[in-house]
Design brief:
By secondary structure, the protein is α+β, with helices and mostly antiparallel strands. The chain is 27% helix and 32% strand. The chain is elongated, with a radius of gyration of 38 Å. It comes from Balaeniceps rex (Shoebill).
Length: 768
């Protein structure tokens, strides 16, 4: 059961949240034209893990509705009450639009990757078993919000399931929102009068930004106060997004008009505007608000050409056909018209097709050609659609390659910018890769550096744009007649470079949301397993593989002893264990020294099965029960062990259960033999001193190493020692052969080819 606040306390907290969040007024009313509605969203608690890779972070995914003016997170952390529970610090990360990009281990990110620190807080669990924390966000952006929580770095110790009880640390995130149901809408070009009742009741309005809006201008005018004092207002444009927020704030003093201009506002989105009074507490303020947009005229190839290019890319043109010749002629004519008219366009659109390949895997294909023309008069624009809600869990990769043969100016540079929500339309003027509410990611290629790559980790859900423009160092007049060809490769992948040779890309899930992360091996680290600070060398990897595989050859003495003493079934089990343990560890290696003769899961299951069955048959062999009973127990125990391993392969009782049961049988058999013979069993002190005590000592040391000493760092050595100790203990513990059986030897034969009979029963049938 998830630990957390009990139902009565949770209801009280919810009521308290509503009372604290609602503005002053009667009920839910803050004035004659404002109605607030509160909504509560909750998700089940999750058990936290110590951090070693992104899969250890527990993700919570919420969706904030439109017109939300207040967001309040209720974060509840708790721990168990046992003695194994200690003081703990929980780190909680927040991000809008995509899962947080975090780096608790301080490792390196891949080259060309964009990293912006996440917004995070720490929650400490000390003497209190439970901690409740509130986080407020005013005027949050509508859409996807993500929370990731984790414990500190993992210690690296390998714990055997069942030997120790880890302390449960639980975390739960609940979301409370306050939403305005009738938010006034500003119409472009129409002045709208509004009244701010008091400083405690800010005014919220919104305006819809159309597509191809190059700029936006907001004006606040005709400001009049009820007490005839100086008008003091503060205007906030935009919503808060974490980890970075780009709200635009302007303070208006006096009765003069106040304005704020924005370049590249977010296209096809509602923009929230908050107007607050800075005057006296009881003074109302009347104002007029006006919004206007600057339109951008896009230029692009005709829709007929796009459709024709799409058909040709799928079926291919037929050489010599009239359709192919006509299309070529039309393309040439259209291109000449674009060159002559490009001065009247603020951007040049290039048609892009989104091709879904798999989960969190998308390829963007340009219809006309992989290369796009870039000039200095207007930016070339490519739309990269990432607004499905399921694209933010991967990595967006954008690669540019400049065709040097098409660059007419040797010192010219193609400047590019990747941005979300709206494109950058003024690269030629400022070369600043930023829009009204987003800081983009710049790229550039030139004849001296013709390639550039950008990796956006967990891109936020939105429409993304790639803007390209030709820049000349001596001014744009030098570039007016110049043109460059740039080949663009853009795709969304779950893990960049598939986590490399020392990592594994894992697809993670939280309810219906899918995202990917890299699990690194062989000491490598980082987001994409590219940090080699603690990486193992190839020689160290080869040494580890040799230790873990060749240490199983220590079963050869045990097999030889078993065969010599006529324990053929036991020898077969030891051979099976040696074989599968060797090849399982050869397949289980994290580095380049890997060899898998069959499926990894099959090898692991056979290795675990052989290990437990070897212990089972050894102890039963020591018990000296009747052969028929021993073989029945062999088969029955093996079947039960196979079933238990299928249920829980790593459970400690899968090994301890058969061991304890076999020990009970052995002790009972030894007591029976001792009572029957009226002396200790085994009766020989040499058997105890030279065989049983060394074997038992080796077995206890092996169990101690396996259960308490193995870590991720020393696994190759300690587990190899486990192999050696277990194999040696088996050789010591196997009982001597039966007295009536003679050692292996060649049969005695007569010169006349008659064999001497050694069966005593033949005397009954002797001819007299």
């Amino acid at each position: 059961m998830a630990r957390g606040v009990g139902p009565p306390l949770r209801l009280l907290l919810l009521l308290l949240l509503q009372l604290l969040a609602l503005p002053a007024g009667r009920g839910n009313r803050t004035g004659p034209e404002s109605l607030y509605v509160s909504e509560y969203f909750s998700q089940s608690a999750q058990k936290l893990s110590f951090y070693s890779w992104y899969g250890n972070a527990k993700l919570f995914h919420f969706r904030v509705p439109e017109d939300t003016v207040l967001l309040r997170w209720l974060l509840q952390a708790s721990r168990g009450k046992g003695p194994e529970c200690t003081n703990m610090e929980i780190t909680v990360h927040f991000r809008y639009g995509a899962p947080p990009v975090i780096n608790p281990l301080g490792t390196r990110f891949p080259a060309n990757a964009t990293v912006r620190p996440s917004y995070n807080i720490s929650i400490t669990l000390s003497s209190a078993v439970q901690n409740t924390t509130f986080v407020n966000v005013t005027t949050p952006a509508a859409g996807d919000w993500f929370i990731a929580a984790h414990l500190p770095e993992a210690a690296g110790r390998i714990e055997v399931k069942g030997f120790s009880t880890p302390c449960p640390y639980m975390f739960q995130a609940d979301m409370f929102v306050l939403r305005l149901t009738d938010m006034p809408v500003l119409e472009p070009g129409v002045a709208m009068p509004q009244t701010v009742v008091s400083p405690a009741k800010p005014l919220h309005v919104k305006v819809f930004v159309p597509r191809h809006a190059a700029g936006m201008r907001f004006e606040l005018r005709s400001c009049v106060t009820s007490e005839q004092k100086v008008c003091a207002m503060r205007v906030v444009l935009g919503s808060i997004t974490l980890p970075q927020s780009f709200q635009r704030i302007v303070t208006c003093m006096g009765n003069v008009n106040c304005s704020l201009a924005l370049d590249s506002p977010p296209w096809e989105k509602w923009l929230q505007i908050t107007v607050e009074s800075l005057g006296a507490a009881n003074a109302s303020v009347s104002v007029e608000m006006l919004v206007s947009f600057t339109a951008c005229r896009p230029g692009s190839t005709s829709s007929f050409l796009n459709f024709s290019s799409l058909n040709q890319s799928q079926t291919g043109p037929r050489p010599g056909s009239a359709g192919a010749a006509g299309s070529s002629t039309l393309s040439t004519g259209e291109a000449s018209r674009n060159v002559s008219d490009q001065r009247s366009f603020c951007l040049q659109n290039q048609p892009v097709v989104r091709e879904d390949l798999d989960v969190v895997s998308v390829r963007y294909r340009l219809l006309n050609s992989p290369s796009v023309p870039v000039n200095s008069l207007s930016p070339t624009l490519l739309l990269l659609n990432l607004n499905t809600g399921m694209d933010s869990g991967g990595s967006l990769v954008v690669s540019l390659l400049l065709n040097k043969t098409f660059v007419s100016l040797a010192n010219a540079t193609v400047v590019a910018c990747v941005s979300a929500a709206s494109p950058v339309l003024s690269l030629n003027a400022t070369q600043n890769c930023s829009t009204a509410f987003f800081q983009g990611y710049p790229l550039s290629v030139s004849t001296s550096s013709a390639e550039a790559m950008l990796i956006v980790l967990y891109p936020q859900t939105d429409d993304w744009f790639l803007s390209l423009q030709l820049i000349c160092p001596k001014g744009q007049g030098e570039c007016n007649a110049a043109e460059a060809k740039v080949t663009v490769f853009a795709y969304l992948t779950p893990c960049f470079n598939d986590c490399g040779p020392y990592g594994q890309c894992s697809l993670l899930r939280r309810h219906g949301y899918l995202y990917a992360g890299c699990s690194c091996k062989a000491g490598w680290g980082g987001w994409s397993c590219t940090d080699d600070t603690k990486a193992q060398s190839v020689s160290a990897q080869n040494l580890a593989t040799l230790l873990l595989t060749l240490s199983n050859l220590m079963f050869l003495p045990a097999i030889a002893v078993a065969v010599y003493r006529y324990y053929l079934v036991e020898a077969s089990v030891y051979t099976y264990t040696m074989f599968f343990s060797t090849f399982y560890h050869a397949c289980d290696q994290p580095g380049v020294a890997v060899m898998c003769i069959m499926d990894y899961d099959t090898l692991q299951y056979c290795d675990f099965l052989g290990s437990v069955v070897s212990i089972w048959v050894t102890i039963l062999c020591m018990s000296r029960v009747k052969k028929i009973l021993k073989y029945v127990l062999f088969v029955l125990g093996t079947l039960l062990i196979a079933m238990s391993l299928q249920l829980d392969r790593r459970g400690v009782w899968n090994m301890m259960g058969p061991c304890l049961f076999a020990l009970i049988i052995m002790i009972a058999a030894w007591v029976y033999h001792g009572v029957k013979r009226r002396h200790c069993y085994p009766s020989s002190w040499k058997r105890w001193v030279f065989y049983l005590l060394p074997g038992i000592t080796l077995a206890f040391i092996a169990i101690s190493v396996y259960a308490f000493m193995e870590t991720n760092e020393n696994y190759y050595y300690t587990h190899s020692i486990w192999h050696v100790l277990v194999a040696c203990s088996v050789a010591f513990l196997l009982p001597p052969r039966d007295k009536h059986k003679k050692p292996w030897a060649w049969s005695q034969k007569l010169t006349c080819r008659y064999q001497i009979c050694q069966n005593d029963r033949e005397e009954l049938y002797a001819v007299t």
